[in-house]
Amino acid sequence: MNGQLLKLESVTVTFGGVVALSEVTFSLESSELLGLIGPNGAGKTTALRSITGVVTPQHGTVTVAGHDLSGLSIQARARLGLGFSQQLVRPFFNLSLLDNVALAAGHAITRSPRRALFARDRSRQRAQALELLERVGIADAAASAPAELPLGYLKRLEVARALALSPRLLLLDEPLAGLNQQEARRLADTLRELNGDGLSMLLIEHNLSEVMRICARLVVLDNGRKIAEGVPGEVMSRADVRRAYLGESYAQA
Ligand SMILES: Nc1ncnc2c1ncn2[C@@H]1O[C@H](COP(=O)(O)OP(=O)(O)O)[C@@H](O)[C@H]1O
Ligand SMILES: [Mg+2]
């Protein structure tokens, strides 16, 4: 099960005059839960988007299990095993949680949301969806619509929808954002459990105490550059990392 699953090599992304990422290199081992951290504007979401294909780097390469992703569509990348959730929660607000996940499961099969919705074999998708809702701890609200539920449920729904694609690498962008301390801790525990079951995960997170608790290794970005990498305790004790977080209201975390 070992080996490099994800590798970014000298990835540079600019938006007009803004350098969002500059020569960023890091890798993620198979079965690893890697934390990608850094202050606001550091380039974390841009790094994730250059992996998923939303953003095209001006320079550098991204590989998954040895496949160079250059030129591949977002769909092709999903077929290579990338699953992702966005920083903003975007479910179908008029569908139940179960249907939201079943739709994602059907999408994984047909690659067409419209056909997934009308596919004849929906019972299998619904069974799979219920299993995923259980796995992320929100099966009790399977029949409820997202609009009726607190953010904690929606964050978990996003994880369940990403899991419905059976990814071999799950990319999460601030899944704990907006949750209270107790909810954040519980969802972090769920993520650790998923990783314990063998799921490789790149976790972008601003909640430093939870990241330090569940990740064995961190990569730190600041101003588009990688400034540190290593085990959480060592990384967070570095003066340059502390300086990067200074002035951020989250720095006390
Ligand atoms: N689509 C975009 N267009 C222009 N600038 C962007 C865009 N996306 C990100 N940026 C800029 O790139 C930098 C890194 O942003 P981002 O990757 O979102 O950081 P983070 O996720 O670490 O907060 C910021 O200066 C941001 O304003
Ligand atoms: Mg971001």
Task: Note down, in words, how this protein is organized.
The chain is α/β, with parallel strands linked by helices. It folds into two domains: 1-81 and 167-253, Rossmann fold; 92-165, no CATH class. Helices cover 38% and strands 25% of the residues. It is built from ten helices and ten strands. The chain has helices spanning 44-52, 74-79, 97-110, 113-118, 122-135, 151-163, 181-196, 208-214, 232-236, 239-245, and strands spanning 4-15, 18-29, 33-37, 59-64, 67-68, 82-85, 169-173, 200-204, 217-222, 225-230. The strands form two sheets. The chain has a six-stranded mixed sheet, with helices on both faces. It has a four-stranded antiparallel sheet with strand order 2-1-4-5, with helices on one face. A hairpin with a 2-residue loop joins strand 1 (4-15) and strand 2 (18-29). The longest helix is centred in the last third of the chain and has 16 residues, at 181-196. It starts with a strand and ends in an 8-residue tail after the last helix. It binds adenosine-5'-diphosphate (ADP) and magnesium ion (MG). Adenosine-5'-diphosphate (ADP) is lined by residues 15, 18, 20, 38, 40-46.
Task: Give a short synopsis of this structure.
The chain is of the alpha/beta class. The protein contains ten helices and ten strands. β1 (4-15) and β2 (18-29) form a beta hairpin.
